[in-house]
Write a structure and sequence with these properties.
With 570 residues, the protein is an alpha+beta fold. The protein has 20 helices and 21 strands. The protein has a 6-stranded mixed sheet with strand order 8-2-1-12-20-19, sandwiched between helices. The chain has a 6-stranded mixed sheet with strand order 6-5-15-16-17-14. A 3-stranded antiparallel sheet has the order 3-7-4.
Length: 570
Amino acid sequence: SEAVREPRSCANARSAAAAMPPSSPEQRRRRSAPRLLLCLAPALLCAALLPRLSGLFASVDRAPRETFCSLRSPCSSAQLRSAGRIGASAAALAGAQLRAESPLRLAAKPLADLEVVIVGAGPSGLLLAHKLLDAGARVELLESRADPRNLDGGEGRAYALGLGIRGRSAIRTVDDALWEAIKPSGFGSERFQLHPTPTLKIELRSPDDGKGLEPSLLIYQSDLCGALLTELEARHAAGGRLKVAFKVRVESVDARTGIVVVQDAGGGGRRELAPAGLVAGCDGVNSIVREAVQKACEGFSVTKEPLPGNLKVIRFAKMPEALDFDAVHAIPGSGGNSIFLEPTARGVCALITWRDATPAAAGGAEAKEGEAAPVSLGDLTDAEAVRDALAKAFPLVADVVDLDAGQQFLSQKTTRAATIRCNTYHSARAVLLGDAAHSSGGASGQGCNAALMDAVALVDCLVEGANEGVDAALLAYSQRRVPEGHALLDLSLGPSDEVGAVKKALFGLSTLVGNVLSRFGLGTPPIQTLATTTLTPFAEMRRDREFFFGEFPTEAEFKKEVAVLAAASK
């Protein structure tokens, strides 16, 4: 935000537009025709570059344009399709409907007899705690890491994420004050740019695509968790129904009895918690609660697939001079590397991905005759070497890559992302949320919003089924969320190899052209635009694209499979 290249404000732009004389529909059509042709040219160029861009889509899809995985869409599917996009007034109406319909608006405390252990104090675990406590439950929150408010810039939870309309709406189901407490820790932006080459810039998303919506909030995960935690303690610490413990490692969970065994920080001893009525697994890809579900549920299946490449996160004090300071940037580099930059309230978060140096046949770069063999970024051990390698691979960011950036890179642990797909999200007294249930490995940038919506869906199901018991509520939760989780993963990764190269190429081309045509209100907007600006359920979006992706189970088929698994685990 210190950059001096700040563009003319939206207010000035609107004033200038208002001062212009009105034009007739015929004049507007005549002007639109050549503009349309000019805009199609970049799309055709992008189609020609498709082979090079295909490897970058995983990084591009990390954009902060998160998706609201609809749990009980406050607007009908017909309304959503007719609206296409949600303008400011429609978005406000949808948010108001969602809040008004929430069972937690009732003055009663329907979950007063429920004791819940939440494993994982990330965004979904903290929002779940807010919702449960508002409904009267008793909550014990366990986190293996330190309090996020006590972390410095380089310690854990260092990556930035984006809260879009769905994440905002999920948080606002608690109340507007909670969202207002979070906003100062983030940076609002709806600009997203792709840089296939140092001289070519493609505007994939602009504020106009939001049609007046509040922009996505780019925020470090530690800052989001810190704000949620501060509000949680301010609202509920004095009530005696909330316990929070950090640096506590969960050793085992018994899904049938609700017993959790933990190891306290610093070797403080192993202890067994009192049986809980519900154990919620918000503990990520390597979930200990998911292991408990697997033991308790006959027929439970989980598919964990590592994504190619390695990942590290570093921070820059400012955006590189060659890039717009208020936009998100996806930049492919040389040697199969890529970098993704997000502006935040505290500098710039840079997500760097690379692949290990391997023979060309395995997808790596092959040394030319007389040249040294390629060296992976992960093999470097000197800060100067890292600085030089990053500056060479990404010329657009060379001016901000210094020795400190090199040292940050070396100090960060290498991460390898993985996807998770489960055929149900609960068994007995255990339930899964977020990455523990459905991880796209960061390939979509939708994970946080989807996890927040899991928290809303779970508590809504518990409240709605308070008279029928936890078993019925968890069944309803899995039946609502499993289709959304499966669809999210499909849409995040794109068509599989099973559909063939032709359909995969057509899908890529349709996405690129759709980005252009949608600016003129023509055709169907691309997936990311629909996910960002509408309440269309993921499952509906996935079924609408069966031509590219293949068949997707019906809602009834999902419900039947989940019900069969639930019956088998009793």
